[in-house]
Structure formats: structure tokens, C-alpha cells
Amino acid sequence: MALKICKNGHRFEKNSACLVCPKCSSEEMKNKYAQELPFIGSPAFRAFDNSGIEKLADLTKYTEKELLALHGFGPKALGLLRERLKTKKLSFATK
Predict the structure, then answer these.
(1) Which residues are CB-neighbours of 41 under 8 A, at least 6 positions away?
(2) Smallest Cα–Cα separation from 67: which of 88, 45, 89?
(3) Angle formed at CA 46 by CA 44 and CA 47, multiple of 5 degrees
(4) How far apart are CA 21 and CA 5, in angstroms?
(5) What's the rounded Cα separation, in Å, for the pair 1 and 13?
(6) How far apart (Å, rounded) are the C-alpha atoms in residues 46 and 59?
(7) What element of type H or E holds 48?
(8) Which of 10, 41, 84, 86 sits between 20 and 30 A of 75, alpha carbons compared?
(9) Positions of the chain with pLDDT lower than 50, given as ranges
(10) Radius of gyration of the chain (CA)
């Protein structure tokens, strides 16, 4: 693993060439989505950013299979979102 330092001075190790700082990314995603979505992890939130998902209601347009196909999105995030949707009487698409 290579030691990297982000523009804010956070030190982190990564195997890949990805320069995303886990600490900065986590804070950014919490600030952007905290009001609407449970914390599902920065990789899953980045997958949402890349897909244009910003609100809980946006998830009703996607099937579970489609979400699981997003890079960085996994079963744990799916379960957390399923529970949040359920509390709002919403669900994933069933295409």
C-alpha cells in the first residue's frame, strides 16, 4: 500500500491510484446526504453521485439489482436503504 496525503493533510493508505481521501469523502457525503439518507459509506455515496441519486425518492426508480451493479454499492448499503424506504412506505422499483 502507498501512503498518500490529501489536500487537507489527511494521511491514508491505498492500493489503487485513486486519490480520494476516505476522511474527506466521508465528511462530504455526510454533509450532502445526511438529511435524506442513512450513512451507507462513502463508496456507495460516490456511486450515487455518479448516478444522479440525491434523495430517497430517487431510489424508487431503481431495482435492487441495478443498485448492486453500481461500483462501490453493496448488500450492506442495500439493506440500510431498504429499511429507510420501508419507514417512508416506499420501495425499490420492481421492473
Answers:
(1) 72, 76, 77
(2) 45
(3) 65
(4) 8
(5) 6
(6) 15
(7) helix 42-51
(8) 10
(9) none
(10) 15
Q: Specify which residues 14 forms β-bridges with.
A: 2
- Contacting residues for 52 by C-beta, under 8 A, at least 6 apart: 58
Residue (of 88, 91, 32, 89) closest to 67 by Cα position: 91
Which pTM does this prediction carry?
A: 0.74
At 49 the pLDDT is: 87
Phi first, then psi, for residue 35 (nearest 5°) are -70, -30
| Cβ atoms of residues 69 and 39 within 8 Å | no
Question: What pLDDT shows up at residue 43?
Answer: 86
Residue 17 has what pLDDT?
Answer: 67
> What does the domain layout of the chain look like in residue ranges?
2-87
The helix (run of H) or strand (run of E) holding residue 28 is: helix 22-33
Q: Which CATH class is domain 2-87?
A: mainly alpha
